[in-house]
Write a structure and sequence with these properties.
Length: about 180
């Protein structure tokens, strides 16, 4: 998935400003796709240059003008092509797992601290996702709503699984004897 296609997807739901798009990312898909404000604005400019979106300038007297981005027919076609294209295997880059792979150098206490820090982050993420899910209500008969809630539920399940895995890893590290704490 690319940021370009994510933005086209959001614009297929409703015309949006860059600020709106950042809010949509943070409130709906951040558990699997993040974007910062600068990235969003760069991609919007490129989409406009490519003719995939148009920009409607809405004058405001008390603030800078709003730039509302609308999906063009070419943008809709691009989004539909991407949605229907074959899925590629994605390369996973997980900085925590890379740290964990080499963390034996830190000893049991250091590894325990690393695991505890990751657990705290995962628990915070689970709380955020669960709060969003609680306020979302049941899926309902709308296909788009069912799919959006399914991605949220996926994030909740993955995060809970990671918390469970971290707890098991923490127990294993804690159970090591001094002999098992050495790194070679």
């Amino acid at each position: 998935m690319t940021l370009r296609h994510a933005i086209l997807g959001f614009l297929s739901v409703a015309p949006s400003t860059g600020y709106d798009l950042k809010s949509y990312f943070d409130g709906s898909v951040r558990q699997f796709w993040t974007a910062d404000q600068a990235q969003i604005y760069r991609v919007l400019a490129q989409l406009a240059q490519d003719g995939l979106v148009t920009i409607e300038v809405i004058p405001q007297s008390d603030r800078p003008d709003r730039k509302l981005h609308h999906l063009t027919p070419a943008g809709t076609d691009e989004l539909d092509r991407w949605l229907a294209s074959p899925l590629d295997a994605h390369a996973v880059r997980e900085p925590f797992l890379l740290r964990l792979f080499f963390a034996g150098r830190l000893g049991r206490a250091g590894v325990g601290d690393l695991i505890d820090a990751r657990t705290a982050v995962a628990e915070q993420q689970l709380a955020v996702l669960s709060a969003i899910r609680s306020s979302s209500g049941p899926p309902g008969p709308n296909l788009e709503r069912i799919l959006r809630l399914a991605t949220l539920d996926n994030g909740i399940r993955h995060t809970q699984t990671e918390i469970d895995w971290l707890a098991e890893l923490r127990r294993s590290v804690t159970a090591l004897t001094d002999e098992g704490d050495r790194h070679d």
